[in-house]
């Protein structure tokens, strides 16, 4: 029985990670077109360095990820804090609403944003689809993730600490700055990293909210599939996988820290 | 003296258009250095976005892209439809002095008479690719798919409705734009047999991988996909069957409300310069419609019958045309075929 369970675990892990391993292996393959192994090379990584256009797409991806993460982290943390500190009537509803961006299919969110922007444009002549509209789109779903992570950190916080700070004469902001924030900081950072990785590889919402000049790496990779994915893309994917994994591991480590 | 030479260089340059050019293109379909040269000459910045299917390109243009992009790359069968929908503008030929560089057959193509709305960018054909070391008998006809007697080895049909039904129609001696229900019924019967003998349907790139991996010996394929791999797999051959095949062209068009039409015209004209067109084709492995560029093409490309089919083959090539309502007949044949 125990052996069966081990086997089952192995199969599940293989199912999850083999496709990723294949991409990484192919990124070192000399063959440009086939999936057959023809020898080891670093040529595709080298070419990647000189691919001017890909550099622009990578830059777009990073701009979006950094900007949306900053916005979402600030707003998400404030939301979590507000829900922790104050009692108000719509709290239950907000707690429920927080889960909506997490569970809603990306495609619904993407179409909704597209229509919303189109509606705004019709009445205000603004905004044109661009990097900014992608940033807003990403922040929309990232806020929920950040809030959920920060709230779980806050739940473990002893309310007596804030009360003690107030007793000792700290104002609202000072309490936040010197007591609460240092305590929840790992949660904030973990939320930010989670948000960052979510933005980095988001395709669906980006697809619907991107305008001219705002192609990101996931969009480019998708558009190159039909004309044949080049090994440069495999190399790029391998780098993305490494970056995302590193972000997730870092997030985990911070979250587990006491 | 130095000043004078600078002045001369400036005068020799075409009017500097400047600004930004927003270009909507297939991924990996233009060499980076060609874009860089254009940017340098016109003191401009090219912003390129990529699409994965003509349908996606059309959707983006309809969603307001016709006023945001300057230049787009539609397939031949979309040009007139996009012109009718007001997504692209009629071209002012006086601003395209390099039009004369186009080969004669591209001066007045069937998909866009007189090049009224577009200029051709790259072209190719659809036919049969096979591994000459794996096939059991010589390949020269669509019969390898449709005649059990001519079966040459494991095969794949192309997963494209018009191409695949078109191939069966061609084998039967009809036009691949035929809309006679009886003819389509004949084609369906042939295709059902072919599907049974072959390994199934595959997209262009997948079919190519299966051919390279040795899973298939014969596949229905696009010329450009195969030309790209011939260096790596010398035993792979491509041909247009003796009954004829499809010719396709990717065109360049300017959107109706292009923010920078001057630069867009300059870009189109630039891509019809012989030296530039040759670099584009050498990179892509597709044929160039710019006749003046042919002498500058790589030897291997210029003399490759898969890229430039000989005249007698050219005459048997047909464009896939918009057939209007009759497309429903094709849809039905395709659905029934896929359901078997």
SSE inventory with pairings:
The complex is a heterodimer of chains A (258) and B (340).
Chain A: H1 2-26, H2 43-49, H3 52-85, H4 91-103, H5 106-124, H6 131-155, H7 159-167, H8 172-200, H9 204-209, H10 217-225, H11 231-256
Helix pairs in contact in A: 1-11, 2-11, 3-6, 3-8, 4-6, 6-8, 7-8, 8-11
Chain B: H1 2-12, E1 19-26, H2 32-42, E2 44-51, H3 54-62, E3 71-72, H4 76-84, E4 119-131, H5 143-146, E5 155-158, H6 161-171, H7 181-197, E6 200-202, H8 204-213, E7 218-222, H9 223-229, E8 236-239, E9 246-254, H10 261-271, H11 274-284, H12 299-302, H13 311-314, H14 327-339
Parallel strand pairs in B: 1-2, 1-3, 5-6, 5-7
Antiparallel strand pairs in B: 3-9, 4-7, 4-8, 4-9
Could you characterize the architecture of this molecule?
The complex is a heterodimer of chains A (258) and B (340). Chain A has eleven helices and no strands. Chain A has 258 residues and is mainly α. Chain A has a single domain (53-256), classed as MetI-like fold, CATH 1.10.3720.10. The longest helix of chain A is centred in the N-terminal third of the chain and has 34 residues, at 52-85. Chain A is globular, with a radius of gyration of 22 Å. Chain A starts with a helix and ends with a helix. Chain B is α/β, with parallel strands linked by helices and 340 residues long. Chain B has two domains: 2-122 and 248-307, 3-Layer(aba) Sandwich (D-Maltodextrin-Binding Protein, domain 2); 124-247 and 313-339, 3-Layer(aba) Sandwich (D-Maltodextrin-Binding Protein, domain 2), CATH 3.40.190.10. Helix content of chain B is 39%, strand content 16%. Chain B has 14 helices and nine strands. Chain B has helices at residues 2-12, 32-42, 54-62, 76-84, 143-146, 161-171, 181-197, 204-213, 223-229, 261-271, 274-284, 299-302, 311-314, 327-339; strands spanning 19-26, 44-51, 71-72, 119-131, 155-158, 200-202, 218-222, 236-239, 246-254. In chain B, strands 1, 2, 3, 4, 5, 6, 7, 8 and 9 form a nine-stranded mixed beta sheet that branches. In chain B, helix 6 (161-171) crosses helix 7 (181-197) and helix 7 runs parallel beside helix 14 (327-339). Chain B is globular, with a radius of gyration of 21 Å. Chain B starts with a helix and ends with a helix. Residues 6-15 of chain B have low confidence and may be disordered. Classes of the chains: A mainly alpha (258), B alpha/beta (340). At the A-B interface, helix 5 and helix 10 of A face strand 1, helix 2, strand 2, helix 8 and helix 9 of B.
